[in-house]
Design brief:
467 residues; alpha+beta; Outer membrane efflux proteins (OEP); 4-stranded antiparallel sheet; two-stranded parallel sheet; 11 helices
Length: 467
């Protein structure tokens, strides 16, 4: 026979002798069956305990959104490496193989290459025709070109590509911060839901035993039917709350597993939260860290530099393109043309008249630089506003924790006083149950306040750009 059955049997044996009233019976049950005692049952299989540090580490390595951002940075790394090759010599090979549709003829008049040479006469001595018949022909063009004046423009464009890669890296940092913030906030939500579920489970066990004993007392006409109905109503309400909280817990676990990039069906428990504190918080320090570390601010700075490089690259288009070029041209099966022609020299490309196109494009880039400067100042202001707001939120939630903690202590003291009054039969059963409900409600508010505090701390860490 279990402990609860033994205690119930003892109460039933003592009941006729002591002539307990319903209120005192309920009080004894509350004292003999506390939720902590009912919860001391060994579970069949305890789920794994997941700490916040482990969750953040898993998310940084396995989160799919972070992986997508990492691949974007790697793509831009390859783009920068590819663009650097524009500074090196350019090799080109062109091949054309064709069939002549009509013969190709070259006509040379008598003496076209000179006339009246002593002892020779005119060259050619008579009208001459040289014809390439309809047959396959080939043309080969090989060239090597080394940019000279373009190196300056290529360097400016390369800096712009490198800045685009750096912007993508800051975007990756921002994505890591967002995922870390989501993991942290959801972790504290899980801690609150888990604590509420544990309390609700203990309450269900308590009311289940209380309902069983109350039914026995009702058969013995020791308690009123209204007392039995009241206990059953409270049991049903706690069972409903247990179902809701268990569903909420499973949904939150699936969401966290998704953020951690692992199996959604994996079940776990979270560690208890620490006691809130404001000891290490300082607004001026938080503002300085944010201005130094926030990815959005760093992105705005890089975009400003990128806009300036784009403007300088556009201005460099006024410079003619000068290259050192070596070319080789070959003809196959074409009469009268040399088999190989090689040349080396400088090539120049320049557009002296563009009808004002370059001027307007340069003006557009200049406006873009002004936009980036304004965006940088606006981002700085937004960062400071965000840090200040999150700092105040931490202060408010910390004060809320203190208030709800005192309310919970007051409710527990009220329950203790009410229990003492029950022993003297000075209060009714519903007053004891009401006091117990007040303790449960104040404890839930305290848990919510703690969760809100730690979520606000997570938002403040994100606002300061902590890695």
């Amino acid at each position: 026979m279990g402990f609860l059955q033994v205690v119930s049997a003892v109460i039933q044996m003592l009941l006729p002798r002591l002539k307990f009233r319903p209120a005192l019976v309920a009080l004894l049950l509350c004292l003999l069956f506390p939720p902590g005692l009912l919860s001391q049952r060994t579970p069949a299989a305890d789920p794994q305990v997941l700490t916040l540090e482990e969750a953040v580490d898993l998310a940084s390595r396995q989160n799919r959104q972070i992986r997508i951002s990492v691949l974007e940075v790697e793509k831009l790394d390859e783009n920068v490496s590819a663009f650097r090759t524009h500074r090196l010599p350019e090799f080109k090979l062109a091949l054309l193989g064709s069939m002549l549709l009509t013969p190709v003829s070259f006509e040379f008049q008598q003496g076209a290459f000179g006339c009246c040479y002593p002892n020779v006469g005119p060259i050619p001595a008579q009208d001459t025709s040289i014809t390439t018949p309809r047959r396959p022909t080939g043309y080969f063009l090989n060239s090597v070109s080394q940019p000279l004046s373009q190196l300056y423009k290529i360097s400016l464009s390369l800096h712009s590509h490198e800045l685009a890669r750096d912007i993508s890296r800051e975007d990756l940092r921002q994505k890591r911060h967002e995922v870390r913030n989501q993991v942290t906030r959801l972790y504290y939500e899980l801690a609150q839901t888990q604590s509420a579920l544990d309390a609700s489970t203990q309450a269900v066990e308590f009311y289940t035993e209380l309902d069983r004993v109350t039914d026995q007392f009702l058969l013995q006409q020791v308690v009123l039917k209204a007392d039995s109905i009241d206990v059953k109503m409270r049991l049903a309400r706690e069972q409903l709350e247990t179902v809701k909280r268990r569903n909420d817990l499973e949904t939150q676990q699936e969401r966290l597993n998704q953020l951690l990039g692992r199996d959604l069906r994996l079940r776990f428990r979270v560690s208890p939260t620490l006691s809130p504190s404001l000891a290490e918080l300082d607004l001026s320090v938080a503002q300085a860290r944010a201005l130094e570390q926030r990815p959005e601010l760093r992105q705005a700075q890089l975009k400003n530099q990128q806009a300036e490089y784009d403007r300088r690259a556009k201005k460099a288009e006024y410079i003619p393109d000068v290259s050192l070029s070596v070319q080789h041209l070959s003809f196959v099966n074409v009469e009268m043309l040399p088999s190989n022609v090689a040349s080396a020299g400088l090539s120049l490309t320049w557009e002296p008249f563009d009808w004002g196109r370059k001027r307007h494009e340069l003006a557009e880039k200049t406006k873009a630089v002004e936009q980036s400067v304004a965006a940088l100042h606006e981002t700085e202001a937004q960062v400071l506003v965000d840090v200040d707001a999150q700092f105040r939120k931490v202060q408010e939630t910390f004060a809320s924790v203190r208030v709800t903690q005192l309310a919970m202590e007051a409710a527990k003291e009220k329950l203790r006083v009410t229990g003492d009054a029950y022993r003297l039969q000075a209060v009714r059963l519903d007053q004891v149950l009401e006091a117990q409900t007040g303790v449960a409600s104040s404890a839930a508010q305290y848990q919510r306040a703690q969760s809100s505090y730690w979520q606000a701390r997570a938002d403040l860490e994100k606002a300061t750009g902590e890695d």
